[in-house]
Amino acid sequence: MDQITSIIDILFKIYYYMIFIYILMSWLPNLRENFIGELLGKLVEPYLTPFRKIIPPLFGTIDISPIIAIVVLQFAVGGLHSILALVFG
Predict the structure, then answer these.
(1) Longest CA–CA separation in the chain, Å
(2) How far apart are CA 68 and CA 37, in angstroms?
(3) Are 73 and 12 spatial neighbours (Cβ–Cβ below 8 Å)?
(4) Which domain holds residue 65?
(5) C-beta of residue 57 within 8 angstroms of C-beta of residue 14
(6) CA distances for 43 relative to 14, 21, 40, 53, 55, angstroms
(7) What confidence score (pLDDT) does residue 62 get?
(8) Domain count of the chain?
(9) Rounded CA gap, 42 and 45, in Å?
(10) How does pLDDT run across 24-76, given as a tens digit for each residue?
(11) 62 φ, ψ to 5°?
(12) Residues 6+ apart with CB under 8 A from 64
């Protein structure tokens, strides 16, 4: 059980950092055009797109949807931990 939760935590941290780096790359648009930027876009955008459709940018330019997406991801990981605790004890 501890190994499963450790793996889930590691995967969450990796995806969290991928989202964070992708957000930082948006400040320098040329970075998104290289291989790493395109790879991160393919991995992160499918998760961020539903949040961007629901949450409009503030003042027309400030996009807070990645922050909400990270919070939802944290809740999902917490829920997954709870489910695993109930199933495996």
Answers:
(1) 49
(2) 21
(3) yes
(4) 2-88
(5) no
(6) 12, 12, 5, 18, 20
(7) 84
(8) 1
(9) 6
(10) 888 887 888 889 889 999 999 999 999 988 988 888 788 888 999 999 999 99
(11) -90, 115
(12) 55, 57, 58
